[in-house]
Design a protein that fits this description.
Elements (H helix, E strand, L loop, with lengths): L8 H4 L1 H25 L8 H6 L7 H23 L6 H27 L9 H33 L5
Helix pairs in contact: 2-4, 2-6, 5-6
Length: 162
């Protein structure tokens, strides 16, 4: 006996929004990664090498791999949770900046320092620079998500609007 399951349109688009979010997370992650590669708030130590420390490495390439994996996950989560609200540019930018700030609070103030044996929830040069990096991530991720959503909307309606 076959069972039919009804899925609401809001639920049905979550995987699509998650995929758009993955792309947006990568774009935001690249921008943030560039910031972290050039920012050295701690005596000639680039922030990206601090990320590598999560796996016991000091290699910038390892830091980039870890960072982009986290950024992709964060983008997927952004798309799945907030995608329905981030279809237009202004809301996407606001949501992206807020989302970047949340990740800064959770990741840079708590998880990363706890894993590296540093004080958690401490304001210093590293966390200040990290806030800027996370805001870059959120801004770029939000913008990218909205651009993808707009492109998909235009593609589905066609050039004649219909």
């Amino acid at each position: 006996m076959a069972t039919t399951m009804q899925v609401s349109p809001r639920t049905a688009v979550i995987p699509i929004h998650a995929a758009w979010g993955a792309a947006a997370g990568l774009v935001g992650g690249i921008g943030m990664g560039i910031w972290m590669s050039v920012s050295k708030p701690m005596m000639d130590t680039a922030m990206i090498t601090m990320v590598a420390g999560l796996l016991g490495s000091t290699n910038a390439f390892v830091g980039w791999l870890i960072h982009l994996a986290i950024a992709t996950f964060a983008g997927i989560t952004f798309g799945a949770l907030l995608g329905q609200f981030a279809q237009r540019l202004a809301p996407a930018v606001v949501l992206g900046l807020a989302y970047g700030a949340v990740w800064w609070f959770i990741g840079a103030l708590w998880i990363m320092p706890a894993n590296l044996g540093m004080p958690v929830f401490e304001w210093n040069d590293v966390t200040a620079s990290s806030l800027g990096a996370h805001l870059v991530f959120g801004l770029l991720a939000g913008l990218t998500f909205a651009v993808i959503a707009q492109a998909e909307r235009n593609r589905s309606t066609g050039p004649a609007g219909g």
